[in-house]
Design brief:
Layout lengths: L1 H24 L8 H7 L4 H11 L12 H16 L12 E4 L11 E8 L4 E11 L5 E2 L2 E2 L3 H23 L6 E8 L7 H8 L8 E7 L15 E5 L6 H15 L2 E3 L17 H5 L5 E5 L18 H20 L9
Helix pairs in contact: 3-5, 3-9, 5-9, 7-9
Length: 339
């Protein structure tokens, strides 16, 4: 009998040891569930449409870097955050990271990035950056380049994601890590706003966990005309295996878009990985994902207007980014850089 008891105790010990070993080496536990889904559902087609018709309106004159229309857009974005009590990371009423003329091109006037911030509840020093550029091409030959897709779609996506996270915080479900909502200027002039931010970061780059960058997510390109339920992902696996898998898991669990990695190929001649604001973060060894719908017949033309946006698709893509940010912000450990 004694021998039997000792054998049972030995098996229990081995079993416990085995379980501990599996736990230490298993994949990170997914934290994103029903609570996140409740707040993702606040990202609505009607809100995205309302915001985009304003951002891409003639009033903002194509939002060219340093010009009056861009300044008006910056003020509008700032007011959006103030009205929702989403904080300014620079303190008080300061939502603008001013960029002096010497950090822009010689023919450009001073400009500004617009920043808003939700502080993390448990790991506030660790930062998740969600970014989009809000500038566009201005007015040429008397025609306004409204830039509804490029990058009005990304701009309003960041705004709606921020509002969803704020609602979660107000309901006691704030992110464990801090989230910086970063609207950069000067992308069309050479990624100038994101370059300035990474050269003069508000928070140390060493504390920046990941950057989710959104540049054109409101349209369907010719390659997906018959299968519009897609988004191009670029860069998710360049620096972090974990970030790539996390992204896949969020899509599989919630949005079920076709994740198209065509432009992630190192040999792709378009070299989109190097052509939007995430690249200034990637250069600093910060894991990134770039969300993109591909180019289309209205790309960089005055015909890129808000009436041509697929708002249902814009909503779904925005929700995917929200879920991905939620998971990054709430995992026990920060995303690992392993490449």
């Amino acid at each position: 009998m004694k021998r039997t008891i000792l054998l049972i105790l030995g098996l229990i010990f081995l079993s416990c040891g085995s379980n501990n070993h599996v736990s230490e080496n298993s994949e990170p536990i997914i934290t994103t569930g029903e609570t996140a889904q409740n707040f993702a559902n606040t990202i609505s087609i009607s809100d995205l449409k309302t915001l985009l018709y304003i951002i891409a309106s003639d009033e903002f004159e194509g939002r060219e870097t340093g010009e009056p229309g861009q300044k008006k857009a910056a003020e509008y974005i700032k007011t959006f955050y103030k009205d929702r009590n989403i904080a300014a990371p620079l303190g008080d009423d300061d939502y603008f990271q001013e960029i002096p003329k010497e950090h822009l091109r010689p023919n450009l006037n001073p400009s500004e990035n617009v920043l808003a911030f939700i502080e993390g509840s448990e790991k506030p020093e660790e930062i998740v950056v969600i970014s989009a550029h809000y500038d566009h091409l201005g007015i040429k030959n008397g025609e306004i380049y409204n830039g509804a897709d490029d990058d009005g779609s990304g701009t309003v996506a960041v705004m709606e994601i921020a509002e969803a996270f704020k609602k979660a915080s107000e309901n006691g479900n704030g992110p464990k890590r801090s989230i910086l909502f970063l609207h950069v200027t000067g992308e069309e002039k050479g990624l100038l706003g994101s370059k300035y931010y990474t050269n003069f970061p508000i928070f140390p780059l060493s504390n920046t966990v990941a950057n989710l960058n959104i540049d054109m997510i409101g349209r369907v390109d010719d390659a997906h005309e018959n299968n519009p339920n897609f988004v191009y992902l670029i860069g998710s696996d360049k620096l972090s295996t974990e970030l790539h898998q996390l992204s896949e898991d969020m899509n599989e669990k919630f949005t079920k878009l076709q994740l198209d990695y065509t432009y992630n190929d190192e040999n792709d001649p378009n070299r989109f990985y190097y052509r939007s604001d995430h690249y200034n973060f990637a250069k600093n060894n910060i894991p990134i994902i770039f969300y993109f719908n591909g180019t289309h017949q209205d790309y960089h033309k005055p015909s890129d207007t808000p009436d041509k946006i697929n708002y249902e698709l814009l909503q779904k893509r925005t929700q995917l980014i929200f879920y991905t940010a939620w998971e990054i912000a709430n995992r026990e450990k920060r995303v690992v850089v392993d490449k």
